[in-house]
Design a protein that fits this description.
This protein is an alpha/beta fold and 244 residues long. The protein folds into 2 domains: 4-143 and 200-242, Vaccinia Virus protein VP39 (Rossmann fold); 153-197. It contains 6 helices and 11 strands. The chain has helices at 9-21, 28-39, 55-60, 72-81, 117-130, 203-212, and strands at residues 43-47, 64-69, 86-89, 101-106, 131-142, 153-160, 164-173, 178-187, 191-199, 215-221, 235-242. It is globular.
């Protein structure tokens, strides 16, 4: 999926705290309800399952959930959290499964960690092959935000409170649609340097790549509560099905 240094022990031990700061823990119920609608009591596969932030509560609703991740550290976090999710180590860009799924999903910008267009297209092909005939692929990613870059560089504050200061420094490589970044997290007891590199993709390009993988767009929403996607939306949840 990406360089293993991206999700080493440092990220794995911090990830839940970081996602809570970013507001992603608060919306888990909405995300799980959304995904459970397409799973419909069947089975699901999460690409980039991580520590199970979404997979575990989805499994608790009765879905049979499997997961893929390339980070041993994150998979250990998942194993400690629950034994309901069957997970294995693999690259989400190139994986195969004998099992066919009602739902394959990839959330919270995990898809953009695939650092080339070729890897992203390979992921879509692998996901399409893992779907059953009536299956659904759900992808959640941010709308690219390139405001504030000067000469290809940007620095900003993610959080500043009485306990934490989180800064991010980024370099934009426009020809490859890559943003190479480092998160600097200062707290009362530690300083962490956390790399985070992505290839951003606009929703129109994602639709085109999905078509090459034999998929077609069914729905697109701006959030898990099914708000309407518009030109001012900051992210999208895109729902694809096999092209007929």
């Amino acid at each position: 999926m990406c360089d293993n240094v991206m999700y080493d022990e440092n990220w794995a031990s911090t990830y839940d705290h970081y996602t809570r700061i970013r507001g992603r823990i608060d919306e888990v119920d909405d995300a799980v309800a959304f995904l459970d609608h397409y799973c419909n009591g069947g089975n699901a596969l999460e690409l980039g399952v991580g520590g199970g932030r979404v997979a575990v509560p989805l499994s608790e609703r009765g879905a049979r959930v499997d997961g893929i991740d390339n980070s041993d550290s994150m998979l250990r976090v998942l194993a400690k959290r629950s034994d309901n999710v069957k997970a294995w180590k693999a690259d989400i860009a190139n994986f195969s499964s004998e099992q066919r799924y009602n739902l394959v999903y990839c959330v919270y910008n995990t898809f953009t960690l695939l650092f080339t267009r070729e890897a992203q297209l390979a992921c879509l092909r692998s996901a399409a092959a893992a779907l059953d005939d009536e299956g659904t692929l759900v992808i959640e990613i941010d709308v690219p935000d390139l405001d504030g870059f000067v000469h290809g560089q940007r620095a900003s504050t993610v959080l500043l409170d009485h306990e934490n200061t989180i800064l991010i420094a980024e370099v934009h490589e426009s020809l490859k649609q890559n943003v190479v970044s480092t998160l600097l997290w200062f707290s009362a007891t530690s300083v962490r340097r956390l790399p985070h590199n992505i290839r951003y993709v606009y929703h129109q390009e994602l639709d085109t790549m999905a078509e090459y993988a034999g998929l077609e767009l069914g729905e697109r929403w701006e959030d898990w509560a099914r708000g309407a996607f518009s030109g001012s939306s900051k992210r999208h949840i895109s729902v694809y099905r096999r092209r007929r």
